């Protein structure tokens, strides 16, 4: 009886909560409820950490070079497009980079931002293929906590952002992430093309620096909002989540930087210019 009452209360709270969602995203795939995406993400985690390595244990690694070339440069093109859309729907056309609130109107500009936010959210599911490729190629050392955590938490949290606040200051880190991914996936794409292109891949350390700068900018951007006397941003909880996200990933990437470039735990000698055997082969 108590369990039934608890379930009923939870369902009522969920119904009340979901009523405040942005009606402009009604009908978009995966946006009706957070449960389908949660199932997808949990399945992904289980596959890349347990099921996939077990299936591949006694199999030869797949040769996915051609698929990965298409995939990596496809993500580059998508990231360029999303960057452009974020810029043209707010960040280069009126946003102040300070207290930018969500425009809930149905103006062309506001709807363009909604579409940009949803596309960015959906792209996070495409990027789950990164880890699946690692598993199918038996590069299990690349399936780190940092990698899986980042790929899991991004789509899950962005569902709530798109559902309730598709626009405003909460999209700054999405735009920055798209810019970083243009560079990252260009690097991965060149790796996938084979040894003839490895001489162009001397800039891996600089790519890590760029990721660190990304998280510093995200943390600084959201932090300055807390210093304002009054910022009427509609969902302050998202400000907290973004600041936590920026801080956590800044710490994790600083830890990676320390181990890889300061402490001296560098790649083996056969890996030159920051080209990992995992990506190049």
TrEMBL record:
Domain of life: Eukaryota
Topology relative to the membrane: Multi-pass membrane protein
EC top class named in words: transferase
Location(s), subcellular: Endoplasmic reticulum membrane; Membrane
Entry keywords, A to Z: Endoplasmic reticulum, Fatty acid biosynthesis, Fatty acid metabolism, Lipid biosynthesis, Lipid metabolism, Membrane, Transferase, Transmembrane, Transmembrane helix
Recorded catalytic activity of this chain's protein: a very-long-chain acyl-CoA + malonyl-CoA + H(+) = a very-long-chain 3-oxoacyl-CoA + CO2 + CoA
GO annotation terms (biological process): fatty acid elongation, monounsaturated fatty acid; fatty acid elongation, polyunsaturated fatty acid; fatty acid elongation, saturated fatty acid; long-chain fatty-acyl-CoA biosynthetic process; sphingolipid biosynthetic process; unsaturated fatty acid biosynthetic process; very long-chain fatty acid biosynthetic process
Pathway per the UniProt entry: Lipid metabolism; fatty acid biosynthesis
Motif (Di-lysine motif): 277-281
This protein's record includes keyword Secreted: no
Pfam family, one: ELO
Segments passing through the bilayer: 35-52, 64-84, 118-136, 143-162, 174-197, 209-227, 233-258
GO cellular component terms given for this protein: endoplasmic reticulum membrane
EC number: 2.3.1.199
Keyword Lipid metabolism: yes
InterPro entries with a match to the protein in the record: ELO_CS (IPR030457), ELO_fam (IPR002076), ELOVL7 (IPR033670)
Molecular function per GO: fatty acid elongase activity
Family classification: Belongs to the ELO family. ELOVL7 subfamily.
Domain notes: The C-terminal di-lysine motif may confer endoplasmic reticulum localization.
Function summary: Catalyzes the first and rate-limiting reaction of the four reactions that constitute the long-chain fatty acids elongation cycle. This endoplasmic reticulum-bound enzymatic process allows the addition of 2 carbons to the chain of long- and very long-chain fatty acids (VLCFAs) per cycle. Condensing enzyme with higher activity toward C18 acyl-CoAs, especially C18:3(n-3) acyl-CoAs and C18:3(n-6)-CoAs. Also active toward C20:4-, C18:0-, C18:1-, C18:2- and C16:0-CoAs, and weakly toward C20:0-CoA. Little or no activity toward C22:0-, C24:0-, or C26:0-CoAs.
The protein's name: Elongation of very long chain fatty acids protein 7
Organismal lineage: Eukaryota, Metazoa, Chordata, Craniata, Vertebrata
Gene name tied to this protein: ELOVL7
